[in-house]
């Protein structure tokens, strides 16, 4: 069976929704179309990283089935780390492709939607008849819907959040990390309160809502420390990394708390930008109305 020029799965993708995969993350722009056909050898590296992220997420489910919760969480966190570098490597090597786009979208939906939902269900939510499974389903579905929304909007020019340096809702990898907050606290403290299925179900449903919400959230591109504190920021990053090595569970819980605290800051920051845009548009409209006609 032969492929036509439009059916070749390894043909470099045109700019548009199919560019989602290893080409870029949220807040990034598609590169120009590359000429030629076939999946270049250099494209194997970023796509192999994406496949490794997919395998890490699915392996987290295996660890959860065996009741090894720490390894299950670490496997999904590793998937998040790999997901954060595959797009950058693809752009560095100029190796974006339609194949990579499809693989990345599939890996994200499984690693950050299905895998965390199953891990949390096996850990706690299975003790809550019916509603526990519905909470897990809600998380997985909302993650997939978020990725589908990103696919649909990637080619849209009018994106107010993106143009201001913000994201819409909580990103899928961050949502997976936040959903594990009760599990972090349970491992760190040993308190059964954090494993209470009702509380976990409410928490998981709340994070699922945040992923598909229209709230403006901070992105890495919008975080620009002042030049006077950049050395302090570097030192803080080093200390956080050291804390992850020595006491990972409390550190992860602390990082989740910091992110949640910063969410209102992102919301009010974008509100100020929106008000400034509205004033500028109103001033431009008034100026155009006051201009003499020809």
UniProtKB/TrEMBL annotation:
Transmembrane region(s): none
Keywords: Lipid biosynthesis, Lipid metabolism, Membrane, Phospholipid biosynthesis, Phospholipid metabolism, Transferase, Transmembrane, Transmembrane helix
Record GO cellular component, one term: membrane
UniProt subcellular location: Membrane
Its membrane topology: Multi-pass membrane protein
Keyword Amino-acid biosynthesis appears in the UniProt entry: no
Domain CDP-alcohol phosphatidyltransferase C-terminal: 230-264
GO MF term list: phosphotransferase activity, for other substituted phosphate groups
Keyword Translocase listed: no
Gene3D superfamilies per UniProt: 1.20.120.1760
Pfam families tied to this protein: CDP-OH_P_tran_2 (PF08009), CDP-OH_P_transf (PF01066)
The organism's place on the tree of life at top rank: Bacteria
Example GO biological process: phospholipid biosynthetic process
Family indicated by similarity: Belongs to the CDP-alcohol phosphatidyltransferase class-I family.
Protein name in the entry: CDP-alcohol phosphatidyltransferase
UniProt source species: Croceibacterium atlanticum
């Amino acid at each position: 069976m032969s492929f036509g020029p439009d059916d070749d799965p390894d043909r470099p993708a045109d700019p548009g929704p199919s560019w989602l995969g290893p080409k870029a993350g949220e807040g990034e722009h598609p590169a120009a179309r590359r000429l030629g056909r076939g999946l270049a050898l250099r494209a194997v590296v970023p796509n192999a990283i994406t496949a490794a992220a997919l395998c890490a997420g699915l392996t987290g489910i295996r660890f959860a089935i065996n009741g090894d919760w720490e390894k299950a969480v670490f496997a999904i966190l590793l998937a998040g780390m790999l997901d954060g570098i595959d797009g950058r490597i693809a752009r560095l090597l100029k190796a974006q492709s339609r194949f990579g786009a499809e693989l990345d979208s599939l890996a994200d939906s499984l690693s950050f939607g299905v895998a965390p939902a199953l891990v949390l269900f096996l850990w706690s939510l299975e003790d809550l008849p019916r509603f526990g499974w519905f909470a897990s389903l809600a998380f997985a579905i909302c993650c997939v819907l978020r990725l589908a929304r990103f696919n649909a909007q990637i080619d849209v020019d009018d994106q107010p959040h993106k143009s201001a340096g913000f994201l819409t809702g909580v990103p899928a990898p961050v949502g997976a990390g936040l959903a594990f907050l009760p599990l972090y606290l349970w491992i760190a403290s040993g308190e059964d309160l954090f494993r209470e299925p009702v509380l976990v179900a409410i928490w998981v449903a709340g994070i699922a809502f945040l992923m598909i919400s229209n709230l403006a959230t901070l992105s890495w591109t919008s975080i620009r420390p002042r030049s006077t504190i950049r050395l302090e920021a570097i030192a803080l990053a080093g200390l956080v990394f050291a804390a992850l090595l020595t006491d990972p569970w409390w550190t992860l819980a602390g990082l989740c708390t910091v992110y949640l605290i910063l969410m209102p800051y992102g919301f009010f920051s974008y509100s100020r930008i929106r008000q400034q845009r509205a004033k500028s548009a109103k001033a431009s409209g008034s100026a155009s109305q006051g201009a003499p006609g020809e």
